[in-house]
Every structure is written in structure tokens, then in C-alpha cells.
Design a protein that fits this description.
alpha+beta; six-stranded antiparallel sheet
Length: 504
């Protein structure tokens, strides 16, 4: 059940989108790290939201905007905040029509855009003036859109209409997915937006910047094969001289985005590492004559990978702390002054990672898998769950405000903190746990896929999917419990009051 109440928070993230011809099994895949703002954690849980739990009049906590919702919501999964008081933040999920969504990736804009179409910011009642609601934002978007759409394309259109009507108080990127298409939408100022279909043979990386680097306005205002946008975008661009191109080819990154010195520490290095991993030989990434470096502002939005991309590949890059480079904060080699120079992808304040995989040639009710991990990606595990279910396992749904070993979130958080503090001793335990969970996850998926293929009764199939999810949760709980014991022992051995002489 989702509850609306609370205060504002800012959520940096990292997103990867993989087209069906770029993935190892023909799946469309969308994945995102959801990160807390600096100096805090946000406990998350994995739940199913039923139609009777979906509000008909939605009110945002942050912006106080009220939105009337349709009367026919679908069931959907979500990864909302576990602690009441800060709004829903449903974050990522799949609805019963088989449409996936992840929202949002915080992105940036420039003063020309924000001056032409200011963000719609909440204004409290004061000095005799009435309250003025703000627009919609990350807190709201999944809840307002996902229960009502039947395709990725339809998701773009619904969100676009909401942005035009209510506006937004922040810049965001949002991904929509079905079995055939992935669409990426970016907000522009308070009311404008663009969306681009991800080509089937590419992957996309998004590191907290406006990312789309080419856009066909002609297509957006005609057939909309691969581009959509707000209704008056042409006039908006012309009126405010936003197109900076010399050749007449619109580059949204230049027109609507921003490039700050801080990007070269916080954002662009993440794109550099991810594309360097998937395309090591396509471009030169290192050295004085590198085509792209961690500080390049023109790293492509998408590329065709050199080999097909797996779930494990996505988890690896979203866990990155620049392994194999001088920038790795854990490195025992290279220039010490460069360690930790750039913001890692897998950081301490990762709250969760969700990868939605829509597999081809599977029955509709078992084709979509939600892979989930909680806490710092460098030390956690990614586990698969069938999306078409009526409930989620208690181990993922029961996250509490208080620290507890009874749930996936806090156990992962504890392992990460202890393993980081005892890195050289604990890394082997973490790596073995990650390997065991990955292998056992595929084993369980294969086993239950085979059982589902043989079962024809709808009720029995539903029971099998939920049984499978419980089996995965039980496996993960057992593996994490053992790993927690090991890293606790390693960290305890490094205590400053340790003494080697026995009492005997």
C-alpha cells in the first residue's frame, strides 16, 4: 500500500537502457540505481499496489499539487519509500499490462531554458497570499502514470500531457518499456519535454545529465516513429534562440542541458566508465590521445555494444567504483592522488537498483522479471522476481525504519558498511556471495520457467510465480546471513582494542 506524506528530497541516479537486439536474449532491459541525496539513506521496499490501494485524487507532499486520476487503475509493482512521511516515491515497477517504468533520473538544464519556462515550484501561503501548488516530480510520476498505460509509447504520451498541464518543479529523465520498445523522456523547463525511442541495437547511459544528443523534430511532428515532444516545442526553441547548432541538426544536450565544471567530477566519468566497459575497442578511452575521457562533454548518449549485454554486465557497471583505473578509491596501485577523484556509480548511498527484463518467447504472465538489489551496489546482490504477482516476499516488503536483519534492505546496508571498513579481508566473502546468488538466481528461474511452461491452469501458474519469488527471497536471505556473519568477524578482528594473547 502506498501512503502520501512528507518532505522534499533530491535523488541522484544512474540509468542504463538496453535495446532488444543489444541484449543477450532479446529482452528489453531498463535499469537504474536510485540514490539518496548526500548525507542520508532512504529505506526502500518492494510491493504490489492493487487497484483499490491506488488513490483517485492524488496529492503530492512536496508540491501540494492535486491530480484527479482515472477510475480504472491496473495492479502494478513498485519500490516506494519504506518510511512514511516523505511521499510515495514509487520509483520503478511493472503493471499488469506488461509495461515497465523507472522514474526518475535527475538531470540538468541551463538558465536560458529555466528563464524561458521556469520550474513550477510550490509557494506556501504567506503574507496574506494563498498557497500556490507546484508541479509534479519524482515523488509522484510512477503513481500518476504506470497504472494507466498499455505500452511504452502510451506512457510517454500520458506523462507528456501531465507535464504540459501541471508542470514540474525539477528536471528529470524517465524510461518506459514494453516487449518491443524502450522510450526515454526528458523534461525541459517547467512544461516542455522530449522523448526518443531507444534503437533496438544500442544501449543508453544516463549519469544525471540531460543526455539525448540528437533529435528529429520533423519526425516528432509527423509520424513519431522515434521522436515525440511537447506540442509547442518548435515555437519554444525559436522564440528563445535555444538551438545552438551550426548545421541545423538539433542537439538537445546543447540546447536544453548544461555543462558545469562539477559535471567532470560527478557525471561524465560515469558515462565514460560504462561505455568504456561495453565498447573497449570501439574508441580510445585512455591516455593523452583518448577520443573520450572522464571529462568529455560529448560522450555519446547511446552506442552499439561490442557484444550482447547480460544482466550481470548491467549489475557490474552499476556497481562500478572505477575498477582497473587510477580512480578506484579502493585501489592499491597507481597514482594515490587520483583515488576517489570521481563520483563512483556504486556509492554508499545507493538505495536500490532495479533492472526490469522483458524476455521474448515467454508466456505473458512469466516473461517479465524484476531484478532487485538494495544498498551499496559494490557490496550487494541482484536477485530476480516474477513481476506478475499479487504480493511480494516478506523479506523485500517488510523494510522498517529501524535497522533489522529481517529484511533485504537493512541486511544489505550492514554488509556494505562492514565490508567497506574491512575491504581487503571482506571482499572475498562479498564476491563469493554475489557469485552464489547470481548462479542460484538463474538456476531458480530456469527451474520455475520449466514448471510454468508445463502448467496451463491460471491459478496454479500464479501460485508458481509467487512460490518462485519466495524461493529466491529465501535463498538470498540465507546467503546474506552467512555473508553478514563473515564480514562482521573480519571487521571485529580489526578493532583497535584487539589483542593477540589469549587469556589461558
Amino acid at each position: 500500500m502506498l501512503v502520501c506524506s512528507g518532505t522534499e528530497e533530491n535523488m541522484p541516479c544512474t540509468t542504463i537502457l538496453v535495446g532488444k537486439k543489444a541484449s543477450y536474449d532479446g529482452s528489453t532491459m531498463i535499469a537504474r540505481n536510485d540514490d539518496s541525496s548526500a548525507g542520508r539513506f532512504t529505506p526502500k521496499k518492494f510491493v504490489v499496489v492493487h487497484p483499490d490501494e491506488q488513490p483517485r485524487i492524488y496529492q503530492s507532499v512536496i508540491s501540494h499539487v492535486r491530480v484527479e486520476l482515472p477510475d480504472n487503475p491496473m495492479r502494478y509493482t513498485a519500490v516506494p519509500n519504506a518510511v512514511e512521511g516523505e511521499g510515495i516515491w514509487a520509483a520503478s515497477g511493472v503493471n499488469e499490462a506488461g509495461v515497465g517504468m523507472t522514474a526518475t533520473e535527475t538531470i540538468t538544464s541551463n538558465p536560458r531554458v529555466l528563464g524561458a519556462d521556469p520550474l513550477v515550484v510550490y509557494q506556501p501561503a504567506e503574507n496574506g497570499k494563498e498557497e500556490v501548488p507546484g508541479g509534479i516530480g519524482e515523488e509522484d510520476i510512477v503513481c500518476l502514470v504506470l497504472p494507466y498505460i498499455h505500452s511504452a509509447r502510451e506512457g510517454v504520451k500520458r506523462l507528456g500531457s501531465l507535464l504540459e498541464q501541471y508542470g514540474t518543479y525539477e528536471m528529470n529523465g524517465i524510461a518506459f518499456q514494453d516487449h518491443e520498445e524502450i522510450w526515454w523522456l526528458e523534461t525541459i523547463g517547467g512544461h516542455h519535454w522530449i522523448a526518443k525511442r531507444v534503437p533496438d541495437d544500442v544501449y543508453v547511459v544516463m549519469p544525471n545529465q540531460l543526455g539525448i544528443d540528437s533529435f528529429d523534430l520533423e519526425d516528432a511532428f509527423s509520424e513519431q516513429k522515434s521522436h515525440m515532444c511537447s506540442a509547442d516545442l518548435k515555437e519554444f526553441i525559436d522564440a528563445h534562440h535555444l538551438d545552438l547548432s551550426q548545421d541545423g541538426v538539433l542537439n538537445p544536450r546543447d540546447a536544453f542541458g548544461s555543462h558545469d565544471d562539477s559535471d567532470h567530477v560527478y557525471n561524465t566519468p560515469r558515462a565514460w566508465f560504462m561505455e568504456r566497459y561495453f565498447n573497449p575497442n570501439t574508441c580510445k578511452w585512455d591516455g593523452p590521445d583518448a577520443r573520450y575521457t572522464p571529462v568529455s562533454d560529448d560522450i555519446p548518449w547511446c552506442m552499439v555494444p561490442e557484444k550482447k549485454i547480460t544482466v550481470e554486465d548491467v549489475k557490474y557497471v552499476l556497481s562500478s567504483h572505477y575498477q582497473g583505473t587510477a580512480y578506484d578509491p579502493y585501489a592499491s596501485y597507481g597514482d594515490r592522488s587520483m583515488r576517489g577523484a570521481y563520483r563512483s556509480i556504486g556509492i554508499n548511498r545507493n538505495d536500490f537498483c532495479a533492472l526490469i527484463q522483458m524476455r521474448p518467447e515467454k508466456s505473458a504472465d512469466c516473461s517479465t522479471i524484476e531484478w532487485l538489489a538494495f544498498a551499496s551496489n559494490a557490496f550487494n546482490v541482484l536477485a530476480p522476481f516474477y513481476a506478475d504477482v499479487e504480493e511480494t516476499p516478506e523479506y523485500l516488503a517488510n523494510t522498517t525504519k529501524e535497522v533489522s536483519t529481517d529484511n533485504f534492505y537493512w541486511t544489505s546496508r550492514m554488509i556494505a558498511a562492514m565490508a567497506d571498513a574491512s575491504y581487503s579481508k571482506s571482499l572475498i566473502h562479498v564476491e563469493r556471495c554475489q557469485e552464489h546468488v547470481a548462479a542460484k538466481s538463474h538456476e531458480l528461474l530456469n527451474r520455475y520457467d520449466a514448471l510454468l511452461e508445463k502448467e496451463t491452469d491460471g491459478a496454479a501458474r500464479k501460485a508458481l510465480r509467487q512460490e518462485a519469488n519466495r524461493a529466491v527471497a529465501d535463498m538470498v536471505k540465507k546467503e546474506l546471513s552467512g555473508t553478514l556473519n563473515k564480514v562482521l568477524y573480519e571487521l571485529s578482528g580489526q578493532m583497535k582494542n584487539a589483542y593477540s594473547r589469549s587469556d589461558a
